[in-house]
Amino acid sequence: MTSRIALISLLALVGCAPSAPVPAAAEPAPAAPAVQPAPAVPPTAAGGPRTFGAPLAGAAALTALTDITASPERFTEQVVRTEGTIARVCQAMGCWMELQAGAAAPAVRVPMAGHAFFLPKDVAGRHAVIEGRVALQELSPEARAHLASEGAVAVASALSIAATTVVID
Question: What single DSSP character describes residue 48?
Answer without folding.
Answer: -
